[in-house]
């Protein structure tokens, strides 16, 4: 019989080889492709052959960057009036993400996730205690202008009351199976505890709620959506059928690898000590709040990790690094997920580009990282910006265009203000 302590040791030993710091670094250049933005969070291209690049701004605006490098003045979509009021100094609410329907070229459908004011029909107590409602909504492009959305076409696909302003998740993307995948944070505050959290297990381990999960839904069926019959928890009385995987704190961001095995990579923001990247599989349990990275977590004493815990059946991350909240030998405060590179620069093929928002909250110190799979073991390394050796902007997100080239969303302010933010293309 394996004791809990021995099980924790085995969990650590079989995964620790994946979490080594590489002795190499990758040199890149950053080319500014868009400026004058406010808190850009992600860049995506529609599957319509136009090679336009759509940039999501946290304040509730989506703008188009044309193939010839022009940022159109008129937004593709402006839903600022639907966004919950944002704090100028720092906020995790807003317009989170954008996903184009696989048949966008023919049906014009796309999906956005955003934080709106708490719904009027929400329970009375939530009016006072909950922060906002997170929405997933469907829109259509205008019939007359391919660079303009039909702002009146909104169809609410999903709505969830959110107890705190933070840990929202809400990355979205369609998989190769045609289903929409959505990341859900644990509801906010800290330690998966407090108002709106399961006091016994935390939301991450509670299969009866959507928070702390990766969801998989069918937007082409049902009202307002369907649940794929092959989802791992369909038919189980103690679990919600929408759940694809669970045990997440704040998955910000995820991305499907367009090559290789088409794995789903998710960066999950840690509590105080460790940041992690997971490869998400069907039905997987990724640990939170039992685990923080590869370490047993105690929500009562979050900085003092337990020597053992019941982590049976949980999947360890492929990448882990120290958070700067509790140690000086650290890589950042909040991991920002990126993409596996599949562009034209073959030397980078299969490398996972990601970053960290900053090593400091008070002073901007954003970081760029890369990881490579070396014989089955992922090695993390620094990315050095050779044409901007003092690059230290807060890293808000990453983007991927139709050709598999990657981008960095950067800002020099902590909050969604200013209109001075930039999008950079990563080049050799």
Give an account of the 3D structure.
The chain is mainly beta and 428 residues long. The chain has a single domain (4-427), classed as Neuraminidase (6 Propeller), CATH 2.120.10.30. It is 5% helix and 39% strand. It has three helices and 26 strands. The protein has helices spanning 4-16, 104-107, 124-129, and strands spanning 20-37, 40-44, 53-57, 61-65, 77-78, 95-100, 109-116, 132-141, 149-162, 169-174, 180-184, 213-217, 243-246, 251-256, 264-268, 274-280, 291-292, 295-296, 319-322, 335-340, 352-356, 367-374, 377-385, 394-400, 406-411, 421-427. The strands form five sheets. It has a twelve-stranded mixed β-sheet with strand order 5-4-3-2-24-25-26-1-23-22-21-20, with no helix packed on it. Strands 6-7-8-9 form a four-stranded antiparallel β-sheet, with no helix packed on it. A hairpin with a 5-residue loop joins β10 (169-174) and β11 (180-184). Residues 1-20 have low confidence and may be disordered.
């Amino acid at each position: 019989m394996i004791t809990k302590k021995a099980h924790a040791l085995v969990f650590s030993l079989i995964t620790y080889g994946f979490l080594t710091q590489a002795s190499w670094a990758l040199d890149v250049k950053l080319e500014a492709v868009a400026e004058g933005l406010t808190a850009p969070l992600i860049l995506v291209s529609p599957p319509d052959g136009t090679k336009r690049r759509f940039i999501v701004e946290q304040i509730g605006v989506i703008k188009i960057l044309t193939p010839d490098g022009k940022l159109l003045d008129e937004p593709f979509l402006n839903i600022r009036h639907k966004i919950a009021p944002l704090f100028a100094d720092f906020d995790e609410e807003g317009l989170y993400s954008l996903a184009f329907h696989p048949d966008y070229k023919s049906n014009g459908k796309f999906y956005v996730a955003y934080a709106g004011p708490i719904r009027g029909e929400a329970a009375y107590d939530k009016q006072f205690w909950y922060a906002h409602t997170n929405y997933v909504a469907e829109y259509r492009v205008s019939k007359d202008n391919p660079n303009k959305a039909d702002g009146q076409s909104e169809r609410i696909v999903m709505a969830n009351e959110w107890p705190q302003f933070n840990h929202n998740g809400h990355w979205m993307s369609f998989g190769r199976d045609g289903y929409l995948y959505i990341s859900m944070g644990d509801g906010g505050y800290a330690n998966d505890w407090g108002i709106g959290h399961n006091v016994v297990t935390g939301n991450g381990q509670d299969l009866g709620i959507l928070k702390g999960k990766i969801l998989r839904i069918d937007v082409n069926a049902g009202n307002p959506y369907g649940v794929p019959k092959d989802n791992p928890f369909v038919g189980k009385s103690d679990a919600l059928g929408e759940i694809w995987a669970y045990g997440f704190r704040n998955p910000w961001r995820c991305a499907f690898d367009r090559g290789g095995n088409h794995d789903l990579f998710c960066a999950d923001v840690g509590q105080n000590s460790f940041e992690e990247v997971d490869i998400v599989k069907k039905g997987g349990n990724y640990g939170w709040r039992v685990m923080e990275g590869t370490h047993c977590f105690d929500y009562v004493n979050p900085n003092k990790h337990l020597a053992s815990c019941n982590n049976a059946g949980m999947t360890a991350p492929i990448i882990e690094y120290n958070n700067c909240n509790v140690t000086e030998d650290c890589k950042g405060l909040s991991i920002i997920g990126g993409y596996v590179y599949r562009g034209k620069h073959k030397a980078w093929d299969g490398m996972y580009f990601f970053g960290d928002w900053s090593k400091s909250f008070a002073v901007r110190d954003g970081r760029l990282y890369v990881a490579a799979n070396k014989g089955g073991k992922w090695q993390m390394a620094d990315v050095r910006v050779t044409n901007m050796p003092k690059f230290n902007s807060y890293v808000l997100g990453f983007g991927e265009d139709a050709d598999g080239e990657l981008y960095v969303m950067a800002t020099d302010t902590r909050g969604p203000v200013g209109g001075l933010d930039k999008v950079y293309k990563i080049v050799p």
